[in-house]
Structure formats: C-alpha cells, structure tokens
Specification:
Radius of gyration: 15 Å
Structural class: mainly alpha
Strand content: under 5%
Order of helices and strands: HHHH
Distance between the termini: 23 Å
Shape: flat
Largest sheet: none
Number of helices: 4
C-alpha cells in the first residue's frame, strides 16, 4: 500500500512538472519522461514482476502508435502537430 502511494505521488508530481514545463516552453523534458518510464518499470518490478515485460511491450507499442499518428499528421498537413517529446512521454 505504501509503495502504491509513493509511486502515485511521484508520478503525479512528475506529470505536473511536465505539464507546467510544456505550457511554458512547448517542450517535454526527456529527463522527466525517462524518470516516469523508470518509475513505472520499477513499480511493476516491485509489485508484480511477471508484468514487467508486458508493460514494457505495451509502452513500446503505444509509443509506436503515437509516433505513427505524429508522422501521418506531419505528412498530410506539412506541419508538426505533435512533438517527439510528447511521443516519448506517451510511451513512458
């Protein structure tokens, strides 16, 4: 129970920091995306290690799908509507 609360507090703080930074500078810091990904993987490793692999695969598939959406939009409109930082954050 303490593990859940600790990770929830960390992730809420990290996501809030990402949102504030993105609003101010229109960039998602890689360091925060990496921290979120590591926190998620370590959470699953501590609570249910059998799910670490499937969770990593899910992140990779979801990140790939968002990247395809980004590329499709860029090729159709000629504009970048979704940055790579957003893609990495979604994968995390």
């Amino acid at each position: 129970m303490l593990i859940d609360a600790s990770y929830t507090a960390f992730l809420a703080t990290a996501v809030a920091a990402v949102a504030i930074h993105d609003l101010r500078y229109m960039r998602v810091p890689d360091q925060l995306s990496i921290a979120i990904a590591i926190a998620g993987a370590s959470y699953w490793a501590l609570t249910n290690s059998a799910l670490v692999g499937p969770q990593l695969y899910t992140g990779a598939i979801f990140g790939g799908a968002i990247w395809l959406l980004r590329e499709s939009h860029r090729r159709i409109t000629g504009r970048v509507g979704l940055g790579l930082g957003d893609v990495k954050l979604c994968a995390a």
